[in-house]
Amino acid sequence: MADQKEKAPKSKMYKNRVALSDDVKQKVVDLMEVPLAASLDMYSQAKFAHWNVKGLNFYQLHLVFDATAKVIFKQIDPIAERITQIGGVANGLVRQSAKYSQIPPYNNEATSGPEHLKSLADSLGAYCKILRETGDAVEEAGDGPSSDFFNQLIVDAEEELYFLESHLEAGDVQ
Ligand SMILES: [Fe+2]
What is the pLDDT of residues 44-67, one digit of tens each? Predict the structure, then answer.
């Protein structure tokens, strides 16, 4: 699924009073940089679809894609701040996201509704997978609360995935 990109370097860490070992904090922060990079990429992909879709169902899809963008946008800031709460640096520059995001690149040749739906659903599916994998990995690393945090994000992101996929099921959107 996700096209494997260059791995981000280890985050710089600040000392704090969060009751986890330095080792666990470093591990958890580095794990959480992956969904941060993906969330910024995902947001711009949903906006790209919102702006550029054409066809008979233009207006409906224009709204659907914007709803997806809004849900993803709301996830960016909390992910970034969970990283800083644990003591890391939120590497959320657009340039960092472009370099390290592991979701697929958007089909920027897409025109019709089905083309945009397919590309956005592929990316959102990969984004949801990253959220699940991050939730599992931080749990395994010893940070249950961060895992709970990702579990909350997954439900909202997968609801958007359901909306996109439900349009594709019918196969008649254009
Ligand atoms: Fe708009």
Answer: 999 999 999 999 999 999 999 999
The pLDDT of residue 8: 87
Distance (angstroms) between ligand 1 centre and the Cα of 50 equals 7
The pair of structure tokens assigned to 58 is 């233009």
Find all residues with CB under 8 Å of 31, minimum gap 6, and list them. 134, 137, 138, 141
- What is the CA(163)–ligand 1 centre distance, in A? 18
| Distance in angstroms (rounded) separating the CA atoms of residues 156 and 143 | 21
User: Do 149 and 132 contact (CB within 8 A), yes or no?
Assistant: no
pTM, full prediction: 0.94
CATH code for 22-170? Answer: 1.20.1260.10
The tens digit of pLDDT for each residue in 74-133 reads 999 999 999 999 999 999 999 999 999 999 999 999 999 999 999 999 999 999 999 999
Query: What H or E segment, with its residue span, contains residue 144?
Result: helix 144-170
